[in-house]
User: Fold this.
Amino acid sequence: GQNIDQPTEMTATEGAIVQINCTYQTSGFNGLFWYQQHAGEAPTFLSYNVLDGLEEKGRFSSFLSRSKGYSYLLLKELQMKDSASYLCAVLDSNYQLIWGAGTKLIIKP
Amino acid sequence: DAGVIQSPRHEVTEMGQEVTLRCKPISGHNSLFWYRQTMMRGLELLIYFNNNVPIDDSGMPEDRFSAKMPNASFSTLKIQPSEPRDSAVYFCASSFGLSGPQETQYFGPGTRLLVL
Assistant:
């Protein structure tokens, strides 16, 4: 079966750095997405990785290791507005997007 | 661009009633997706269309659910009859439906459905 694992919840301090991990086992791989979802709102696109390595986009970076079936989202200089759920999703060999359950990130002052 | 548009934003209905949710995808996008999200089950894909044709409806819970896409700019998700367990947030999303980053899905604001 297809499976994506993420921690259910994480807590971090304003101004700090947090890393949210995602491991996946899917039938094929055509890319990995990270989405942010604030409470009561829709998921919004953050990043896409298809090659190994780190993609940096402002305060957010996303890393991928295809051989390990592993990705992480790195958030720097945390702000209160970063409190949200972060969803990892993998595009499988049929170009179906397989979603993780999401990681709820709580930022404390 | 207006983004993905959904209506209604909120719907409260009684068990047994018919519910119709509507979606207008982003212009130029070829794929459209209907999702349901609950605290217990997370984000679930119900059905998706490519070029207005249903490709995979294996996520549709049962015969009470049906979806149509009569043209490239409009889709509906219908529940008849509705049941309390259908209470959830229903999202519509669209993408170019090509490959790689073009598969990025853009979500509408969702319809919050409460069936009493």
In short: Chain A touches chain B at residues 30-31, 33, 41-45, 48, 50, 87, 91, 95-97, 99, 101-102 (CB under 8 Å).
